[in-house]
Amino acid sequence: MSETAENQASDTYDVIVLGAGPVGQNVVDRARAAGLTVAVVERELVGGECSYWACVPSKALLRPVIAIADARRVDGARQAVTGDLDTVQVFARRNHYVTDWDDSKQAEGVKSLGADLFRGHGRIDGPRRVTVTRDDGARHTLTARHAVAVATGSLPLLPEIPGIREARPWTNRHGTDSSTVPGRLAIVGGGGVGVEMATLWQGLGSQVTLLARRGLLPRMESFAGKLLERGLTEAGVDVRIGVQVTALRRPDAGGPVTVTLDDGSELEADEVMFATGRIPATEDIGLETVGLTPGAWLDVDTTCLVRGVDGHWLYALGDVNHRALLTHQGKYQARTAGDVIGARAGGLAVDDTPWGDHATTADQHAVPQVFFTDPEAAAVGLTAEQAAAAGHRIKTIDLDFNAAKGANLYADGYQGHARMVVDVDREILLGVTFVGPGVSELLHSATVAVAGEVPLKRLRHAVTCFPTVSEIWLFLLAAYQRAQD
Question: Which Gene3D superfamilies match (predicted)?
Fold first, then answer.
């Protein structure tokens, strides 16, 4: 039964949303704004992965680590850092921000929007129908007049390696909900989760070994991974590039894990964590009942309508459509799709042209991403390699941050690098990458410039405040101008 009433008046709604994380909640908000009735189905915690095991807890844990690192870069503050982090208080801070894994406030938030919340496992059961099975086995069938929106997220991908089951490896969930600092932690994977977890647990006192087949942050500009490798190494992380795990051994359930690498060497750790990718959480949601493959990523158009399903009723948002596995992008998709569902339900026109009201165009051209490491790495849009491969004539402008007086005041001996990728035919930005302390706060300005396709001649009139780290914009634009003269 719905949590909002003892007696559910009807099992028919305009919209049914599978998943009550941030993405699902944004669909609810926009669908309710259009006057539609909504049912939300959640089998775990209302708030989803982001609220309890990913974005929120990881940043709550990382902030004390980065704050100490920032203090040590400022003379006068450096001398005040005389001890280690208080891990008990760090974990308590995390617990506060995840509300001790109590989702009651978020559940109330969903209901305050006017939606009915159903707890249990939701499965699509043919067109526009969802069956909810509660923990006690009770079943409730819901029918959608207009749309079913799948926002079930993704799960960690664990490779098929001998001994992995016995090793009981950590995933991102263990990496963010643990309150015990392992003496030695091996992290497998050099992407965003891997580098953030290496920063976090080394800062909390673990001896971290980071194992990556390719360079760090391989989807960003290559300099980002190199600068981050240097920063992690200086912090004490043992970074090993070009290695692959071939086997794990943990004969004693409470003992250490032996990690065998493809070069024949071995290392021992108290815990091993895999950050080697994600798979869609679509294996058991009934996709086969509408002609789709269970466990597959869902292919969508620019309105997030699932392709291959008749009737314009099934939508997929966030991680499940594999367009950008980032919470903020999923929420962007959800806002757009919620408006689309409302428009289609009302018989209104849908503008799905590029950058139109109902098109998720930014997922192809202006995806912002930040990794809260030391140094931070932030980027939006295309890398130089991606832009060239797409056929653009480009010019890249690279500068170290020491050109900006504000950067040196932010941190003594500030070390960082910036690159902008310019479409020389249109003189707009295709991509921007920053690496350095505090650069996450620069990213939205870059996102506005890329998404808005702001001409560089106009962008030069956006005056940067002195003395701030954002002065790097002034020097990047001046360098491009000199290159053109």
Answer: 3.30.390.30, FAD/NAD(P)-binding domain
